[in-house]
Amino acid sequence: MTLPPLAASSRTVPATTYDAILLAGFGGPEGQDDVIPYLRNVTRGRGIPDERLEEVAHHYRHFGGISPINDQNRELKAALEAEIEQRGLGLPVYWGNRFWAPYFADALKELHADGHRKVLVLVTTSFSSYSGCRAYREDLATALAETGLEGELELDKVRQYFDHPGFVNPNVDAVRGGLATLREQGLLEGAHVMFATHSIPTAAADVSGPREALPSGEEVPTGGENEWYAGGGWYVAQQRAVAALVMDRVADEFPDVPWSLVFQSRSGSPEIPWLEPDINDAIEKLDDAVKGLVISPIGFVSDHMEVAWDLDNEAVESCEERGIVPVRVPTVGVDPQYVAGLIDLVEERHVAPGGTPREREALTDLGPWQDVCPTDCCLGRAAKATIASC
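Structure (tokenized):
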């Protein structure tokens, strides 16, 4: 029997009452001695020698071996706790990482020891892809098995929130602020906005998100013609939709500013096609009329290592070589709108007995996104080639 196609918004589950929240992060090294062990964790099972890892490690060495991501998640955890207290939800927040302490397994053992049994998971990624969603689910399942807590702890993950107001609005404010900076410098007439996100293998991009259908019922594309990338899937579609929405929102003050979606932080075998254009290649190809560039890290939720290195160092250098003034605007970080938006997502799923769940919000036609992923969603066949630098 062939089931009819479903829009992502059809895959919702009833709200219930949870005991606690788990903030799920990527993790990062916190000292020089941590760098190679951390990169071994990220690349475990891929047979990558330490010599190759050291090529990535120099990014961390440049910053004393410390990725900012853990401190940023500590700040986010504190901000979430404050928002939860203000709303009177009474949910404690725990924190665990995929690749560095505190690990998922440690967080799950702590949750269980403290008497919690039903946990709602907030993941620090907003877009649909293997590495941004399914890998977190798989690693949490592995941690449950390794700790012997299967059947003891129930973990549910909130939906991807790429087009939730709490994510979109801070990015609108950031781009508006970046363009205002160029205007102050007399560079608005020659302005361009680049939305930067993590590159992934094109094969992984093609199978990102559910395979069933677009919200219209049309088939999900897996091919096409583009100067840089012939492919489909939800990862690129979601990012283009949000970037277009941001530019539409700033058009009242800054109309007709050209923009593009670019990629960064490519890694892995050079024989494997990845999403392009790389931001540095895209900067090199900008028209000579471009004098000011707003760089928006739309694909990230915090100013971690890839933002600090790939954008604040490499992309800025590429701009300087072209005589272009760069303005790198912030990620959502702990912006109060983002923090409130994450707790809005919690309140979609968590209600006191007899309560009413919060209405689901989405600012594009693609959402609100699904609570439950089908088995063919964000297949990871090519994603495991990644060496991340968070």
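Residues 223-230, 381-390 have pLDDT under 50 and may be disordered. The chain is about 40% helix and 10% strand.
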